[in-house]
User: Which sequence fits this backbone?
């Protein structure tokens, strides 16, 4: 099986999963007791008004018609309208998405940049101080709830030292870019943007830094004990080449798989990090939607997150197959 | 339901012992877990105060070893005119409240001790639920393979596509409309039997303890439902390989029923990785529970996450309110992770990074 | 030659050290080599005071049961013993006139004539000897090649590292070309184009052809899992030959292969060895392989080389009862009543605390005498054959029934010591 066919197969499976996500999200509304009409209609609405609302929302149709309608509308980019603000859910969700993506990407960058060297040092200097420091850090990192870490960081850097803002998002990435030509001084904008992103990114990134450090360390120790390492040394390759070209590359294969599985944790972590830092992203939007019973927004958010998860996993699979050619062969 | 003979070979036990002896970390883990379990079980005996008793006169006391400066504003009549006088008052810690008190004057130590109950209950019950669901699904999928496997595993994929925290919040949001009461209140046997009262009288802590305790049922159901996937993946993988073993083939050839084969042959041989995963999952679920209570979805106020959320509002004046329960979470999760690492090293079940927060 | 070198004054030999005397054709002289593993269970003496020599262009066989320390001995030669193992003592004298000249002034104790003691060389130099001086073929080709890099690329690496070394001798930096995280990222994005050059790849293809792989240009771009076991072992041999080594160590090169393929691989090794005049150290548990391939042979037991000499010496007139037993355990097809004669008992655990100050084989030896309990015997030359040396009291005296230990001597002793 070629690389292209492998990806195609994964893509088809991904479409299936997205369809499953949409179905579950659609059904969520129906296992909810009480009718959306209660949310939308005024308390003293007459029967006529309620029927009117039901017609508008399509609730008088049989379930399968509503389901097909829902999918049809989705395919046209329509996720319904917020019960609260009447803004299209798609607009509201995609408005909030960049902030969350920015946070998730920043956290991933922090995690990858810190964790791989930490893991390598830890594995290659086993039972030395650097290893103990890295393993202690990573144990602490996977054991600390990130919302509490966020609060502690706020306490230390915002409340006590006053070097970073306690919450909020100063400017976005796009605004920072725009500032190059814009009226506001570029440096001020970028500083404010980075400063507001710093603590949330560390908060969200710590768990992953710790997790990947552990994975790289144990994976590398495993790889270092495998037969080809000895053979690679026997043919005279220098240790750096053995470590990086051979061992680390093979270590990254299982690490990448686990990361694919943990993407959900990243998004879940983003939700709660946003809550801690009042970060105006999808996470805050989900919590708001649940508290306000604004189902179309919740549904839209879940579909976007689920689809994003599936897409990213296809990327992860592609990377996996690229790193380990045996995957494609199977 | 009888789960065959649990196959723990002498070799396994030897490995466990060996790893335990050689690893100081495993010992630390066991001690930490023991502390949390003792705190959770004997909370009504050892908590110095009733965790729910409010006392505004004693609000925001700092923990032992710290002092706090508080601004007091008084309105006085000085020389016939009304003046507002602000002065700084130093508040000293007292040994009666070793970890300080929160904004309502509740004892932080007692709340941390009682919080262990919620965390442990949700962690254990949630894990059992997730394991029952996941192992059933996983064994079925792996044992029957083919279409059943495909269908079940695609369901698992869909379930994985929702981040567990988001799914949990969404489910709680939905459940909350079923019944206003998302938690189940049970009476505390240690208190109702009088044991706690007798013990406390004896050691000189005659405070009456809360007679009931809240089990956040919805949270248990939700975290169990959210985390089944990890168990399903592991159980399926094990079933897929075990079903090819000769003894399973032999049992099938002898005409054993599928259920019997699964419970007598497949499950006992798949149990090691499942147990290791379960250990790690308790930690993951404790973290998930604390996140949910932090966001206000817990159904009980005696929870570490809830207290952290409360303390967040007082960061600049009383840092300890948010800090203490967090330390409790970190220590208990570290304990479980250390034991999980120990089991993983000793049993080598081949799972890495399965299960998430 | 079997005796430790007499402390006569020789150029470069300081403090009575120096290469052991031997045949002028020697390329490798190993003296008193010991490798220990420091495990939680205790110290394991995997290789215990081993002496042997390897001559130019010969095949030297090391034979022993599994657990006799022969693989560790091989790894010790090439300095690839992993933690918790460590070479604790001994000298590995390797003949290389250029290297000897280079270190004659700085490290006089490591140089003796054309020989250098690799154990005394700096670690970087010792590493640099892997490839051009020593290289190794391993038992299981499947696990000895990196599964995620093409076979050709892996061989090309071995070629490339020697090219770079020749351009700038013994500089670790030039070999590495500062290969770090940055290169890894480049390599990951553009695989197979990071370290090796086009010409190294071409050389790799030549090597593949040389070891008899059909369509080498195409197969070079395949991954190890696309090769059969026999083909993979050929590729491993190509990789080991890439640095044009003086000494090729082959550790059970045919054990993991099908019987039909074993013969092909042995023939290939033999042909290549004759063609390139390389010395081969052949490590195996298979006496058939030894008989077929080797000029001289060393028999290992419990970490020691208990008997060594030419093939004829060892096979036709063995002195050590262990060697006799080994040879006795091969069924002779011409014998009308073939009977396998297994040696009773098991290979000892090699745990330091369980090894007594006696001949390690005494407890299994059919000819154990009271003398055997005195000391660990030193090498003794068999009379008449200069090259035939044995670590056994029988080399110097006859077996006598009178001194024989009672048959249950060691069983009784165990009970007294309360062993499990």
Assistant:
């Amino acid at each position: 099986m070629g690389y292209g066919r492998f990806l195609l197969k994964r893509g088809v499976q991904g479409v299936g999963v997205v369809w499953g996500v949409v179905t579950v999200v659609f059904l969520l509304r129906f296992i909810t007791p009480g009718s959306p009409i209660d949310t939308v209609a005024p308390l003293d609405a007459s029967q006529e008004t309620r029927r009117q609302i039901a017609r508008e929302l399509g609730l008088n149709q049989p379930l399968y018609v509503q389901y097909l309608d829902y999918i049809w509308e989705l395919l046209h980019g329509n996720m319904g309208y917020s019960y609260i603000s009447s803004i299209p859910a798609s607009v509201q969700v995609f408005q909030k998405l960049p902030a969350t993506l920015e946070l998730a990407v920043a956290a991933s960058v922090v995690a990858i940049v810190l964790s791989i060297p930490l893991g390598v040092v830890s594995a290659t200097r086993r039972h030395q101080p650097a290893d103990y420091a890295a393993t202690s850090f990573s144990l602490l990192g996977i054991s600390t709830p990130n919302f509490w870490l966020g609060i502690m960081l706020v306490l230390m850097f915002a409340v006590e030292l006053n070097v970073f803002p306690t919450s909020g998002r100063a400017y976005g990435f796009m605004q920072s870019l725009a500032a190059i030509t814009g009226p506001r001084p570029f440096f001020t904008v970028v500083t404010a943007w980075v400063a507001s992103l710093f603590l949330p990114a560390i908060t969200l990134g710590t768990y992953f830094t710790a997790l990947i450090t552990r994975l790289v360390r144990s994976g590398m120790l495993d790889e270092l004990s495998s037969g080809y390492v000895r053979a690679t040394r026997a043919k005279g390759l220098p240790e750096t080449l053995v470590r990086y070209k051979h061992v680390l590359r093979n270590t990254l294969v299982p690490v990448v798989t686990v990361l694919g599985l943990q993407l959900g944790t990243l998004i879940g972590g983003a939700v709660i990090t946003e809550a801690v830092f009042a970060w105006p992203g999808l996470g805050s939007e989900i919590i708001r939607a649940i508290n306000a019973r604004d189902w179309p927004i919740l549904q839209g958010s879940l579909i976007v997150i689920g689809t994003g998860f599936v897409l990213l996993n296809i990327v992860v699979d592609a990377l996996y197959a690229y790193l380990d050619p045996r995957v494609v062969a199977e | 339901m009888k789960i065959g003979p649990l196959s723990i070979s002498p070799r396994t036990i030897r490995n466990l012992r060996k790893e335990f002896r050689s690893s100081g970390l495993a010992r630390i883990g066991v001690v930490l877990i023991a502390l949390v379990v003792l705190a959770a079980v004997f909370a009504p005996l050892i908590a110095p105060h009733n965790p729910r008793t409010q006392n505004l006169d004693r609000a925001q006391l700092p923990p032992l070893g710290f002092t706090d400066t508080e601004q007091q504003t008084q309105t006085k009549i000085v020389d016939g005119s009304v003046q507002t006088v602000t002065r700084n008052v130093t508040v000293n810690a007292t040994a009666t409240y070793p970890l300080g008190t929160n904004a309502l004057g509740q004892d932080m130590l007692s709340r941390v001790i009682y919080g262990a109950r919620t965390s442990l209950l949700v962690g254990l019950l949630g894990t059992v639920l997730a394991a029952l669901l996941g192992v059933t699904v996983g064994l079925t999928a792996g044992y029957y393979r083919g279409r059943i496997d495909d269908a079940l595993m695609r369901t698992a994929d869909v379930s994985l596509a929702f981040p567990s925290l988001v799914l949990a919040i969404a489910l709680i949001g939905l459940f909350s409309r079923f019944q206003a009461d998302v938690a189940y209140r049970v009476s505390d046997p240690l208190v109702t039997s009088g044991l706690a009262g007798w013990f406390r009288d004896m050691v000189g802590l005659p405070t009456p303890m809360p007679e009931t305790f809240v089990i956040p049922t919805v949270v248990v159901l939700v975290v169990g439902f959210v985390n089944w996937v990890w168990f399903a993946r592991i159980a399926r993988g094990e079933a897929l390989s075990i079903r090819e073993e000769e003894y399973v083939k032999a049992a099938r050839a002898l005409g054993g029923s599928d259920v019997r084969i699964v419970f007598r042959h497949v499950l006992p041989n798949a149990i090691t990785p499942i147990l290791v995963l379960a250990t790690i999952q308790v930690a993951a679920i404790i973290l998930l529970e604390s996140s949910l209570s932090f966001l206000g979805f817990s159904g009980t106020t005696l929870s570490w996450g809830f207290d952290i959320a409360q303390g967040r509002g007082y960061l600049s004046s009383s840092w300890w309110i948010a800090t203490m329960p967090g330390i409790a979470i970190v220590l208990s999760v570290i304990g479980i992770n250390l034991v999980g690492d120990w089991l993983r090293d000793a049993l080598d079940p081949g799972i890495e990074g399965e299960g998430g927060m | 030659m079997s005796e430790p070198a007499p402390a006569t004054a020789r150029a470069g030999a300081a403090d009575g050290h120096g290469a052991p005397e031997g045949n002028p054709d020697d390329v490798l002289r190993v003296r008193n080599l010991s490798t220990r593993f420091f495990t939680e269970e205790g110290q394991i003496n995997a290789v215990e005071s081993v002496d042997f020599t390897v001559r130019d262009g010969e095949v030297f066989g090391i034979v022993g049961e599994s657990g006799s320390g022969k693989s560790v001995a091989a790894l010790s030669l090439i300095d690839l013993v992993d933690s918790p193992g460590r070479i604790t003592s001994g000298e590995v004298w390797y003949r290389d006139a250029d290297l000897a000249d280079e270190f004659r002034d700085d490290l006089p104790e490591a140089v003796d004539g054309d020989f250098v003691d690799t154990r005394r060389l700096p670690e970087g130099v010792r590493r640099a000897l892997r490839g051009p001086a020593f290289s190794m073929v391993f038992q299981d080709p499947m696990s000895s090649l990196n599964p995620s890099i093409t076979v050709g690329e892996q061989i090309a690496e071995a070629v490339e590292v020697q090219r770079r070394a020749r351009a700038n001798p013994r500089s670790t930096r030039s070999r590495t070309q500062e290969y770090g995280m940055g290169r890894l990222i480049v390599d990951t994005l553009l695989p197979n184009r990071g370290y090796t050059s086009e010409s190294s790849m071409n050389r790799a293809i030549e090597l593949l052809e040389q070891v008899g792989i059909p369509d080498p240009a195409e197969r070079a771009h395949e991954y190890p899992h696309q090769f059969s076991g026999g083909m993979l072992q050929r590729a491993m041999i190509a990789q080991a030959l890439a640095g044009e080594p003086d000494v090729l160590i082959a550790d059970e090169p045919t054990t993991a292969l099908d019987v039909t393929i074993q013969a092909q691989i042995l023939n290939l090794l033999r042909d290549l060895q004759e063609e390139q005049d390389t010395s081969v150290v052949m490590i195996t548990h298979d006496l058939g392989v030894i008989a077929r391939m080797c000029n001289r042979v060393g028999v290992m037991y419990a970490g020691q080389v208990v008997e060594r000499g030419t093939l004829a010496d060892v096979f036709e007139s063995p002195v050590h009862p262990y060697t006799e037993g080994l040879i006795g355990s091969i069924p002779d097809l011409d014998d009308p009543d073939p009977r396998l004669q297994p040696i009773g008992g098991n290979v000892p655990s090699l745990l330091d605390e369980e090894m007594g100050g006696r001949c390690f084989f005494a407890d299994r030896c059919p000819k154990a005498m009271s003398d055997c309990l005195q000391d660990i015997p030193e090498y003794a030359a068999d009379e008449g054959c200069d090259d035939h040396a044995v670590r056994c009291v029988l080399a110097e005296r006859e077996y006598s029934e009178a001194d024989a230990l009672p048959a249950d001597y060691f069983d009784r002793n165990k009970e007294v010591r309360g062993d499990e």
Q: What stands out?
A: The longest strand of chain B covers residues 67-78. Residues 66-96 of chain B form one domain.
